[in-house]
């Protein structure tokens, strides 16, 4: 057998060829001892190997598809929380050979603006729509119109409202929800507050937009745990304006001096440490939601005790993947409801979340982050669904 050029051997390995006629012809054929011939061999292999034909036309093992344009309709498009979400759908689209999904909606949680964006997606012939359902009434008609037009719709981050007993009120015929189980996350917040403040006492829970489906269920879940035990739980609106959020938090703290201060949205959480510091209450038990950079810095400094993680990156990546699979399978792979997680981040496990990455929205760089060595800590599983 002639000596095989390293390029030929590399081509064989990359094409994952087993013992086939194509592989044998590459190894034994005359003239395959130069880099230029190796390039020709690679082209020939792509054309003759049935196992690699799909890879030549589409991503991975998938066949070539139309350039499906998906739309993401969001309620706060400029909120830093959704930076990882945008990286998630961009990365998924790149992986699947699709154009980057469009990012549209409202900047201030105005449902009418979101409805207009959904209608625009329908008019443009979108191949799929992912939207946040921030209430149970506004999206019935537009989502129904999209589905009637043959456009699959999934929800992410918010899925309508939840009654005080945990019963969902979604309000439209979307296919699936990809996001945190919000009422349950609120219950877990209530349990954490109870552990930090064992004696029933007055506590405050700050919330940007009371009544909206992305955060109201969290307050309701926490209140369902605490109020029956005798805790006095105040729900205080902070608005979506950063300067106003800080001012409202400080005003309430000074006037009421609660035993603990918490929040159910990313921005209100990020201002908690500053509000407590500037009102002389920095030792007050506190915590909230999400991993925006300021909150992670506060946890590192010990001024915020915890935050609850819901993985915004997956809330962009998975809807894109699910819409792709629904389209490529002729509708036979409908998306499934997916809980993107509920993890408490404290100073003890902060390091792995506090690295610059697209997954946390702290850098544009596409980076591989090696996992921490050692055992994987995880509580005993409690459900198989």
CATH class of the largest domain: Alpha Beta
Report the CATH topology name of the largest domain. Answer: Rossmann fold
The figure for the number of domains is 3
Stretches where pLDDT falls below 50 for ≥5 residues?
14-56
Figure out the total of helices. Answer: 13
Distance from first to last alpha carbon: 56 Å
Name of the CATH architecture of the largest domain: 3-Layer(aba) Sandwich
H/E series, N to C? HHHHEHEHEHEEEEHEHEHEHEHEHEE
The CATH H-level superfamily of the largest domain is Response regulator
Strand content: 5-15%
The secondary structure category is alpha/beta
Biggest sheet, spatial arrangement of strands: 2-1-3-4-7-13
Shape: globular
> What does the average pLDDT come to?
88
Radius of gyration (CA) equals 25 Å
Which helices and strands, and how do they pair?
Layout: H1 6-14, H2 21-28, H3 35-48, H4 53-57, E1 70-74, H5 83-96, E2 102-105, H6 111-123, E3 128-133, H7 140-148, E4 153-159, E5 161-162, E6 168-169, E7 177-179, H8 182-196, E8 202-207, H9 216-226, E9 232-237, H10 242-256, E10 260-263, H11 266-278, E11 286-289, H12 293-301, E12 307-309, H13 314-328, E13 338-339, E14 343-345
């Amino acid at each position: 057998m002639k000596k095989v050029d390293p390029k030929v051997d590399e081509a064989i390995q990359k094409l994952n060829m087993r013992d086939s006629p194509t592989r044998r012809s590459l190894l034994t054929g005359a003239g395959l001892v130069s880099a230029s011939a190796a390039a020709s061999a690679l082209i020939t292999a792509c054309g003759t190997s049935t196992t690699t034909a799909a890879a030549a036309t589409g991503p991975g093992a998938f066949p070539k598809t139309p350039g499906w344009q998906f739309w993401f309709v969001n309620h706060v498009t400029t909120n830093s929380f959704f930076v990882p979400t945008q990286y998630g759908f961009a990365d998924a689209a790149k992986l699947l050979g699709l154009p980057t999904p469009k990012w549209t909606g409202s900047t201030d949680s105005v449902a009418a603006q979101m409805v207009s964006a959904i209608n625009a997606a329908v008019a443009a012939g979108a191949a799929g729509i992912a939207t946040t359902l921030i209430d149970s009434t506004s999206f019935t008609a537009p989502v129904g119109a999209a589905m009637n037009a043959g456009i699959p719709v999934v929800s992410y981050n918010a899925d309508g409202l939840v009654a005080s007993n945990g019963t969902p009120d979604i309000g439209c015929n979307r296919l699936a929800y990809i996001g945190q189980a919000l009422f349950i996350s609120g219950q877990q917040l209530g349990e954490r507050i109870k552990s930090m403040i064992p004696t029933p006492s007055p506590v405050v829970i700050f919330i940007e937009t009371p009544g909206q489906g992305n955060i109201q269920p969290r307050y309701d879940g926490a209140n369902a745990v605490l109020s029956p035990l005798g805790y006095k739980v105040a729900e205080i609106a902070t608005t979506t304006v950063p300067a106003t959020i800080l001012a409202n938090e400080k005003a309430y703290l000074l006037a009421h001096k609660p035993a603990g201060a918490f929040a159910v949205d990313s921005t209100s959480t990020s201002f908690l440490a500053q509000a407590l510091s500037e009102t002389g209450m920095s030792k007050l038990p506190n915590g909230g939601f999400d991993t925006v950079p300021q909150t992670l810095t506060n946890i590192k400094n010990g001024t915020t005790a915890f935050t609850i993680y819901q993985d915004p990156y997956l809330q962009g990546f998975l809807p894109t993947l699910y819409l792709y699979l629904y389209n490529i399978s002729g509708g036979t792979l409908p998306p499934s409801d997916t809980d993107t997680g509920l993890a408490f981040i404290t100073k003890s496990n902060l390091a792995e979340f506090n690295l610059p990455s697209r997954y946390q929205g702290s850098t544009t760089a596409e980076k591989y982050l090696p996992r921490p060595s050692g055992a994987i800590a995880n509580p005993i599983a409690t459900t198989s669904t």
